[in-house]
Amino acid sequence: MKVGFIGLGTMGTPMVINLLKRGFSVTVYNRTASKADALVVLGATAASTPTEAAQEADVLITMLSDDATVQELILGKTGMLDGLSAGQTVIDCSTVSPETSQRIHKALQERAIEFLDAPVTGSKPGAENGTLVFMVGGSQSALDKQRPVFEAMGTRIVHMGASGSGSAAKLAHNTIAAVNLLGFIEGLSMATKAGLDPERFVEVVLAGGASSKQVESKGDKIINRDFRNQFSLQLMLKDLLLAGDLSNSYQLPLPLQKAATSMFQIGLAKGLGDQDTSSIIRCYEDWMHTEVTKQASGQERRRNTRLHLNIPLLLSVYQWEQEGAFTGQTIEGQLFDLSETGIQIVSPFPLAQDMFVVIHFPQEADLPPITAKVIRIENDNGNFRYGCMLSGLAPYVRLKIEDYIAIYPFISGEDYETAENPY
After folding, report:
1. Radius of gyration of the chain, Cα coordinates, nearest whole angstrom
2. If you placed Cys at 53, which of 47, 193, 233, 370 could pair as Cys (CB 3.0 to 4.6 Å)?
3. Is residue 170 flagged as an active site residue?
4. What does pTM read for this prediction?
């Protein structure tokens, strides 16, 4: 059987290698022609156009990045359509919308050409090992005819139903994968912030009820800081957006899908699009100011990094008088220390432990009032150092605090390295 293969990216290249290993004659095409060179050495034939790849093939496989590319290379003016003829079969392994799959199916059916939408799961390792799982939409007879082709690249071929069913299954599947990955990463971030060894925590997760394929495939990558692409963050985001369009067409609310989409959009904005989906951990590392990585034996939890400051503050102090009534006063203080979990304020005014204060930054900081609880008091030559735990501080507010601290020397004319601490 002669196979034409279009799209030699992360997934396409190892899929072609497995076809060649199983004895198929394969003609390949890629817009970046040099990607075919290594496959030609292994026995593939390189085509200069999609039409050329399609002309001599019994079955043509596409593995492309998005809906627009798939439609252009199959149905477009420069695509393969003119090279196809009745009796051939086109298998699209890309992840696209069911609507796109159905549109291609209808156009090819008019020319007596079979079409199967057959997206895969298994990422790069599955493509390399020939263990992909195919979710197939289209006729059962067309699938049965091409089963040897599928079996050369994967271990499970599941017929999902009519045209578009494979694409719908893939979007539902990747919604689950994204939510699972983020659930794992959030738990891992929590454990790391608590001072636990991330490697040991992953071991626990793998042995417990929270285990999943995402933990199996991404746990070691995260801990070893290996964000080389198996399945890129930007492609996961693309799939989540398609899943959102599909669920909206059903008027089906999917809160977790929407939350996952927002999280991967943050990752894309951070510049992680070309990296593996596991790189989304870097967003959480920014928020918790801690890197998730393998710990050396006996490594102690790192102390919070502290900045020594002298920023003037006003503190609103409220005291309970009687049922439904408070009295309060405003006192002066200075922000002396900032850590990952709290702040240290210096003031000559006495406060009590467990008292709540409302902190007001200088007007130019453009910061809202921040509530803190006094958890530690030290007497320092007539002044008091108050260790305060921040209460309900939103991540964006903390970032604004850090931005203000960064520019404060320029506003005040002070230098943190040389300014004397008046206390």
Report:
1. 29
2. 47
3. yes
4. 0.71
How far, in Å, CA of 56 to CA of 290, rounded?
56
**Strands in 193-324 per DSSP E:** 307-322
**Given this structure, which CATH class describes domain 2-161?**
alpha beta
Task: Give the contacts of 217 (CB within 8 A, at least 6 positions apart).
Answer: 123, 125, 230
Catalytic residue among 2, 77, 170, 238: 170
- The architecture of the domain spanning 169-288 is Orthogonal Bundle (1.10)
Task: Spell out the domain ranges in the chain.
Answer: 2-161, 169-288, 307-412
Residue-wise pLDDT tens for the chain (423 aa)? 899 999 999 999 999 999 999 999 999 999 999 999 999 999 999 999 999 999 989 999 999 999 999 999 999 988 898 889 999 999 999 999 999 999 999 999 999 999 999 999 999 999 999 999 999 999 999 999 999 999 999 999 999 999 999 999 999 999 999 999 999 999 999 999 999 999 999 999 999 999 999 999 999 999 999 999 999 999 999 999 999 999 999 999 999 999 999 999 999 999 999 999 999 999 999 999 999 988 744 444 443 444 556 788 998 887 655 555 556 788 999 888 776 667 889 999 888 887 888 999 888 888 888 888 888 888 877 789 888 887 666 767 777 887 787 777 666 655 444 444 333
Write the CA distances from 329 to 115, 322, 384, integer angstroms.
Answer: 76, 16, 17
